[in-house]
């Protein structure tokens, strides 16, 4: 069989956002920012305070960084040298789960066991030094409520974590108690940030005017420096949890994906842009083209990258991948259409992310961009997905016109560690 051309065009249209729609989305994002600054309950953006501003870029000294965002935990000893220069002096990384040996994220583990394990990594990073004082910054990438830079309480575990005794607790208190049990009273946890804030801090240590930080990967989130220009508050990075932005018009595949997702009705933007969901959206569309609507093939964003990278005339790699995943052989002409479909889904993702950035820029600068702006982005989609960065920048140009020349996006892929060290340094100033 070959694809029905009318059906294919209809599917492409479902993943298309024109210029007018893009401008509306950017304006709606700005609207939610303005509403959220007055009352977060009235916005789909969380507007979470980080209690930290940008570094001066003159921060110097040795600081510990704890990167705790998944099952692999890292502790780094980093020397900040000012002006964006730094050196990782030591790095210790171990998993919280080793099958057959230990599992510190299971329901039968304890908070004490988990944090004693982490304190052991800290002890390795300082090479058993129990005398010299170290300040520790902590990138903790789980939903938390925070009242100052130190005090972050875990609201609920995600990512299959089930360790009891942590939810509702101040994670730095648990860490501090574990360090004390190790005799490491010379290590002082001083700051907790999330991974998106860490990306912005790390980039702002190296570049000027980094007012936006973003993770564009398996998941999606953005933060920005809110100047509080008309208030007495100090400028502060706000974590938007922007994957939850919902002032969008989802297509029928988005609606179907949402209905069968773990949390229907939540994370609307994330489900339209992130690496975790793009492969699923593509698979749903391909199933319709193959006359198998509703069938799940298990395509991933890595598969989408492979499809876009096939430049051969007969699309051999695409045909082989489709055959492997679906059990169906397709003609070269249809394989070329498959590539067009993947590109359209990636293009839509990048344009939506661009619209969210422009919404923030309009909030910061008004309709015209006066100052140069640097947007720090970390993540596999931005870094590795063919055409993602290119289409993001095209979206910025489409929305900003000539002002787009004043906006630069930069890759910041070491943020979790460096950002935590910078947060520790800033906490002492």
From TrEMBL:
Q: Which residues form the Hexokinase N-terminal domain?
A: 9-205
The family note in this entry says:
Belongs to the hexokinase family.
**MF terms in GO:** ATP binding; D-glucose binding; fructokinase activity; glucokinase activity
Q: What is this protein called?
A: Hexokinase
Q: Which UniProt keywords apply?
A: ATP-binding, Glycolysis, Kinase, Nucleotide-binding, Transferase
Q: Which SUPFAM superfamilies match?
A: Actin-like ATPase domain
GO cellular component terms, alphabetically, are:
cytosol
Reactions it catalyzes:
D-fructose + ATP = D-fructose 6-phosphate + ADP + H(+)
Output one GO BP term.
glucose metabolic process
Which InterPro entries does the UniProt entry name for this protein? ATPase_NBD, Hexokinase, Hexokinase_C, Hexokinase_N
The organism's superkingdom is given as Bacteria
> Per UniProt, what is one Pfam family of this protein?
Hexokinase_1
Q: Pathway it acts in?
A: Carbohydrate metabolism; Carbohydrate degradation
Where does the Hexokinase C-terminal domain lie? Answer: 212-426
